[in-house]
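To the structural biology subgroup,

Please find below the input and predicted structure for SipW-cognate class signal peptide, which we are adding to the shared reference set this quarter. The sequence is reproduced verbatim from the submission form. If anyone notices a discrepancy with their own records, reply to this email rather than editing the shared folder directly, so we keep one authoritative version.
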Amino acid sequence: MKKILLSLGTIAIVGALVAGATGAFFNDTEVSANNVFTAGAIDLKVDQRLASYNGEECPTCNLKVVSDETNLLTTGGNAVVLSFVHPSWTADLDGGHVAGVNDGSNDGSKWIWASQGPTTPSIDQSITFEKTFSWSGIVSTANLYIATDNNYVTVVLNGNTVASTLDDNNFTTSTEDTYAVPAGYFVNGTNILSITVRNAGGSSNPQTNPAGLLYKLLVTGQCSQGQYGTPGGFCEIWSEKDLDDEKFFNFGDVKPGDYGRNLISFHVDNNDSWLCLLADNVDNDENVIVDPEATAGDVTDPPGELGSNIDLYSWNDTNNNGVYDSTETLIRHSFFDVFFDLPINDSSTGNGSFPGGQTEYFGLAWCAGTWNGVNPTAATSNPVCDGTTMGNTVQTDKLTADLVAYTEQWRNNPNFLCSSVVLP
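Predicted structure (tokenized):
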């Protein structure tokens, strides 16, 4: 028995030696390591750039202007967000910019240039960037945080020189610069910030001799969340953000003939998407029936009549001026009670997707009554809002609604319609 067991053991050992010996033959191995699937993201942010009531613009309380793809080149076109961030570029704009990444984390600022790096890095190259923004009210404080590779020849706001430097090292946390911008440099209305950056010639490799601009302008105004002179009026202006308790409308004493307008912008990172503005949780409340309502024949409760007496225009405000121009696309003209499912970009609009990393501008004009004339949008100094069509049946009525900005992926989703969205 022992012999048999030993023999079997010997056979097993020999077999193992033979198997191991096969490694002596020619062989080759190719490995594709660390394969990864990472889900993309669609992150929508919204700001309200302008709001007005009876021609009075809402004062701006806070404003943030940053380097991103909405900055324009004086030679034409938009700035390019750089995909390569040099390891030496550690500037964080006073803690707002996350060093080492270029996705606009935290404060929205991104390293930009005219192209993906200098086209001819061996020679000097100067690029001028312009950013247009709106301001209304009195400026309390304004601070510019800036980092460049190499130097910024001039920083100019509305023709006023804010800063300049010949120092070639402005791109680290210790060398980035901060400037207090005088309040008198700002104007009510459209402002233009112009920054000229020079990249010194050197290596012919754009990653060895890179070029870039990173900045943030923070402005605060003298206002307490924008109280209007109109009785019961209230407004807010806010920068790009995830919405919390912000309101596009919050008016407590609307009268026939009152009117206003809003300029809203949408930002999505970092995939192309469809874009809608939806009305949800609409409550057209009778509130209470007072004598003039009853006399006018309004004896039903609910619903109220205010929703059918707020006349709205909405349009793609492609030039970002808060005015409905004849070349721009009218999205819808209707009363608020049927003002649902606004398709800013869907398969029915014919304007394609909302490109990731870009900004979409949306204009809205409302009238307590009826807009008169062709395309009356409250964009002129004397808009025609006819309040005579809004009778006593509307008195004390209250209209509340959630306005929901909604995005959905564009890729692999060609037939999307805003009217098909079911909100949770």
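Summary notes: The two ends are 77 Å apart (CA to CA). The longest helix spans residues 2-21.

Regards,
Lab coordination
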